[in-house]
Design brief:
Blueprint lengths: L1 H14 L1 H11 L7 H13 L6 H34 L7 H14 L2 H6 L5 H4 L1 H6 L4 H26 L7 H35 L1
């Protein structure tokens, strides 16, 4: 997997923003690209001048995530469960995993898409079951955008901060980077639950 990540990083280094867009688009409909590594590297490449502007790096990353999510949603919407049964094994997305994701959607509704932006592996395939469930497209894009905005901005700025010293940080990202982002998700969930409880209390008064 690390050799594949190096190839993707080389793609970004060579083709710039076009390479970053393609890498993140592919990673959002099942191709096993480690976004938690690619994004900090993109930030570091911005710090060293290989990519031009920090804000543009974040914008291109978001565009890639949304484009890939669109493809994933279309795969699920028009291919359905049979496409997972037939091709899911190639990206390690089994029927059992599909059922777990489906159960997660059942519990959290469309907000599950936001949470999935921070979960290893699931973030790269969550658009497919969303398409299978025929999730409201507007809400799908809203939660994908908000989750990706936090995810991409945090990791790109992290890479930009460390710059040429990023090699020392990448092993930590592989082991525990998602825990930091998970804290942000937990805070968001607490906020949403608090708002819902408050709204319910107001209605019952």
């Amino acid at each position: 997997m690390q050799h594949f990540e190096q190839a993707v990083i080389g793609l970004i280094d060579h083709y710039g923003y076009a390479g970053l867009f393609v890498a993140l688009a592919l990673g959002n409909f099942g191709v096993p690209i480690g976004s938690e590594i690619v994004l900090p590297v993109a930030g570091a490449l911005t710090a060293t001048g290989h990519l031009s502007y920090l804000w543009l790096t974040i914008a291109i990353a978001l565009a890639g995530e949304l484009a890939g999510g669109t493809v994933g949603y279309a795969i699920g919407r028009y291919g359905g469960v049979p496409i997972i049964e037939r091709y899911g094994k190639y990206i390690h997305f089994t029927h059992e995993r599909l059922m777990r994701v489906h159960g997660f959607f059942e519990r959290w509704g469309t907000f599950a898409i936001f949470v999935c932006r921070f979960l290893p592996f699931i973030r790269g395939v969550s658009a497919i079951p969303a398409g299978i469930a025929e999730m409201n497209l507007g809400l799908f894009y809203l939660w994908t955008f908000l989750g990706s905005l936090i995810f991409c901005t945090f990791l790109i700025m992290l890479g930009n901060t460390f710059g040429t010293h990023l090699d020392a940080v990448i092993p930590l990202l592989r082991k525990g980077g998602y825990f930091v982002l998970g804290a942000a998700v937990a805070a968001a969930i607490v906020a949403v639950v608090a708002v819902r409880l408050r709204a319910r209390a107001v209605r019952t008064e």
